[in-house]
Amino acid sequence: MAPAALPASFPPTPIRISPTLSSPHSAVNNLLPFPTASLFLHGYIAGLEHAPLLPLRRSPSCFTRCTTSTSPSISKATSVLFSQELGLDEREVECLLQKHPELELASPESLHRRLLSLQSVGITGLGLHRTVARRPKTLTSPEVGRFIDFVHKELEGLEPAKLERLLVSSHPQFFPAFSAKVRLLVDHGMPGNKLGQVLNDVNISKVFGARPIEGLERMIVFLKGYGWPELIVRRPSLLNLDLENQLIPRVDYLAEVGAGDREATGLIINKWPAILSCTVEHFRSHIEFWRSIGLADKEVFKIAMVYPQIFSVSKERKLKPRIEFLHQCKMNAEDISKFLIKAPLFVSLSFEYNLSKKLAFLVKIGYRHRTRELALAVGAVTRTSCENLQMVIDLFFSYGFSRENVLTMSMKHPQVLQYNHESMEKKIEFLVEGMGREIGELLIFPAFLGYKLDDRIRHRYEMNKEIRGKGISINKLLSSRSRSS
C-alpha cells in the first residue's frame, strides 16, 4: 500500500530531529514525517550546486538518464526526506531512486532512522550528502546498520572524516569482519577508550581489511614482547607494517646491534616507538657511519638506549659536521661515545637557532675554540634553553662573579650552566642568608647548586649546624654522612 500523501506545505523554520539516546539506530521515538538537517535549511540548498564533492549534482549522465518529471511511483515522503536531509531537489531525488530502487523499497521511517544514526556518529551536513551520493546502500544495508551501532557504542573518538571515507570506500560485507578485528584488539588488552584514537591513525583498509584476523593476532602476539598495547597507543601507524617483512627484521637488526639483548632492545622501542618505522637499510647505513669514526656497535647501542632518535638524525646535515667539531676539540672515538651518552641532543639540536647561540655565550665567558673543555661545556648546555643559559650567567654576574669566576665554576662542574636559574637563585640566597656563608664558596664547590634545596641542602644544614658548627665546608656538609642522616 502506498504511503499516505504528505502535506504540500512546509514549516517556515524546519525542525531538526535528533536520535534518542536509548536506541539511536533501531527505533526513533516521536517520529515526525519531515526530519531536517540543520545544515540544509531552506535557501541553503541552492548553494550546493557548485560544491566540488557532490558527484550526484555534477553528473550530467545521471540527469540524461532521468526524466524531468517526478514519477508517480516515487514516494512523496521519501522525496521530502531526501530533500530536507540531503539537500536534493526533486529531479535529483528521482534520479537517485531510479538508479538505486532499493531506496524506494525501503520505508521512509527506516531511511529516516538510518540518517539519524549516521548523524549520531558525526556524519552530518555535506559529509552525509557525500556518503549517500557515493554509497546509497549505506541507507539500506543491514551490515552498515550494525556497523554504525558498533561505532556509536565502542569507537568513541573515531573522526567523522575517517568514518565517512570508510563508509564510502567499503562494501557492506567488509564491516562484520572489521568489527571482529577491532574487538580482537580489545580482547588482547587494548583500552576501549583508545580504539578511536588508534583507528584515526592507521590505514584501515590495510590493517582491518586485507589482513586476515589470524595475521592481525600474530602481530599482536609479537608486539606483546615490546610493550603492547601502550606501544600502539603511542604509535598506531606501526599496525600498518607487515609483520614478516618489516617488523620482525627491524627488531632483529636492532637486537643484533645490541649483541642479542632483547630486553634492552625492547626498552629502546618503548622509549621511541617510531624507531620501528626505520628500515633495516636505514639502520645499517647509520651503523656503518658510526663504525667509520671508530665506534663499536655496542657503543652505538648504548647511545640509542639513552636517545633512540640518534637513528633519525641526518648523517650529512648534522652527524658529520657535529662529529667533526668534536674531533677538532681533541676527542677520540671513546671520548665521543661517552660524550653522546651524556649529551645526545648535541647531534640533533639546530645549529642556527640553538648551538650557535650557546657557543657564543661560552666563548664570551672565556672558553677557547677547539678545546676539550669547550666541547664538554657545549654538551652540558644542550639540556637547557638559550634563555635559561643567559639568565644563569646574568645571575652569577649579579652576585659579583666575574667572567673568569663563571668560567672556573663551569669548568669544574659544567652542569652548573644548565641548572634552572630560578632554583639556583633560591639556593644562593639560602647559602648567603640562611647559612651565613660566603658567596665565594661556590668557586670551590659549584656542585652545591645541583643539590635539592629542601630535600638535601636545608635538611643537611639543620642536622649538622649544632654538631659541627658553621666551620664545615659546604662540600663536606652535603657529601658526608652523619648518624642522624
Automatic annotation (TrEMBL):
Keywords assigned: Transcription, Transcription regulation, Transcription termination, Transit peptide
Superkingdom of origin: Eukaryota
Pfam family, one: mTERF
Molecular-function GO terms, alphabetical: nucleic acid binding
InterPro entries (UniProt xref): MTERF (IPR003690), MTERF_sf (IPR038538)
Protein's GO biological process: DNA-templated transcription termination
Family: Belongs to the mTERF family.
Protein known as: Transcription termination factor MTERF8, chloroplastic-like isoform X1
